[in-house]
Design a protein that fits this description.
alpha+beta; Phosphorylase Kinase, domain 1; Transferase(Phosphotransferase), domain 1; 3 domains; five-stranded antiparallel sheet; two-stranded antiparallel ribbon; 39% helix; Kinase-like_dom_sf; Ser-Thr/Tyr_kinase_cat_dom; ATP binding
Length: 405
């Protein structure tokens, strides 16, 4: 009983990474991994930083079998997250009618759509911001979590998080600003392959960003230790990156474009999967001209068919990262932007298939029409898993990798 009470207190001393692993299983639809944790005593009602449960995530992603498993373990069907949404609210939001029926039969309520909404003004969204006094730094240490700002590990309400200080005037004439609207949007993003954004604080000429803490380091360190990765690991990591990026690019009404995807902002979680960080950097750029509100977001939309399409740049960065995982880092640069050089992938040491080589060539091609979407990349990678006699399920792949070092 004491153990379960401790798990339910997501801001207590309990290890949030264990909770993150549990919720990641629910979001990915990994019934085997989730069931093992439930058998070992993990409460089905554990909540993340924003009070979201495994039921919330499974309802959002459309995993009916996960919903049924959690209900079998007596999960509370009407727990609310920070935005007062229940799992049924999320199921309705994403149009998963089968899950709506399951939740309704089991007593699920939608407290937002079943009663009048309270009008909320934009200034009220400041409630998602942090109080700087809540960040305790006595045992803090620096961490590698990207290129934009200095990051340290700190304690917040009893759990480790990462505080990144971003200078307000990195690139003139642009200043670093995160609007209340963008702050709220970022906090609501949920996917097992993107780093969780928790909030921000404005301090004079600096922005302080708070994100989840991952202890396993970044992809750059992983590659540098091994020189290059084996085929199965590279495929699995590429699949993680593609899934996370596809989630961001499919965001409505405008895609969330990264622009700065590299091995330093790809972070490894406790389960050995990659999460994408720094996807908020473009939102930090707000022109000093007050009439150019939200210009970066609108630019992303207007460039969708042009030569500067940010989604195509992200695909190119992905292709280069995939190449680096398979072949090792080229000796000509420490941090290569493949769009700024005449990059031609040459495959000398990897055992990748002809189709994977073609995929990397297309992703990094100067002909933008050849660059695929991340949705198409995912399809190709999952077909490669099948050709290798492996399921595309991350848990199945993990099991095979453990037996093929």
């Amino acid at each position: 009983m004491m153990k379960k009470m401790k798990e339910r207190n997501s801001f207590g001393d309990f290890d949030m990474q264990m909770i993150g692993k549990f919720l990641s299983f629910a979001s990915r639809g990994d019934r085997v991994g989730l069931n093992l944790m439930l058998i070992k005593g993990t409460s089905p009602d554990v909540q993340d930083y924003d009070n979201r449960t495994a039921l919330h995530l499974a309802a959002s992603e459309g995993h009916a079998s996960i919903i049924e498993l959690l209900l079998h373990y007596k999960a509370n069907v009407n727990l609310k997250d920070r935005w007062q949404r229940t799992p049924l609210t999320d199921a309705r939001l994403y149009g998963h009618r089968d899950i709506c029926r399951i939740l309704e039969v089991n007593g699920g309520k939608d407290f937002i759509h079943d009663q009048p909404l309270t009008i909320r003004h934009e200034q009220d969204s400041n409630e998602v911001n942090f109080d700087i006094s809540e960040l305790h730094t006595p045992d803090s240490s620096s961490v590698k979590q990207g290129d934009f700002g200095e990051s340290v590990k700190v304690k917040w309400r009893g759990t480790w998080v990462v505080k990144t200080v971003v200078k307000r005037h990195i690139f003139q004439p642009e200043k670093m600003i995160l609007s209340a609207k963008d702050n709220t949007l970022l906090r609501e993003l949920r996917h097992p392959n993107i780093l969780q954004f928790l909030g921000s604080i404005e301090q004079q000429e600096e922005m302080v960003l708070i994100t989840e803490y991952l202890s396993k380091g970044n992809l750059e360190d992983i590659i540098s230790k091994r020189d290059r990765l084996d085929l199965l690991t590279a495929l699995r990591y590429a699949h993680d990156i593609a899934r996370g990026m596809n989630y961001l690019h499919e965001h409505k009404p405008f895609p969330i474009v990264h622009y700065h995807l590299n091995t330093r902002n790809l972070l490894q979680d406790e389960g050995g999967h990659l999460k994408i960080g720094e996807y908020w950097v473009q939102m930090l750029y707000e022109r000093t001209n007050p009439h150019e509100d939200n210009c970066q977001r609108n630019d992303s939309a207007s460039m969708s068919n042009g030569p500067l399409d940010g989604t195509k740049k992200d695909i190119c960065s992905f292709g280069y990262i995939f190449y680096e995982m398979l072949e090792g880092r080229p000796s000509n640069s420490d941090t290569v932007d493949p769009e700024s050089i005449d990059f031609k992938p040459i495959f000398l040491v990897s055992r990748s298939s002809r189709r994977i080589k073609e995929l990397i060539e297309n992703c990094t091609s100067n002909d933008l029409s050849r660059r695929p979407s991340f949705d198409a990349v995912i399809t190709i990678l999952e077909e490669e898993f099948s050709l290798l006699g492996m399921a595309s399920c991350p848990v199945c792949v993990d099991s095979i990798i453990k037996h093929h070092p």
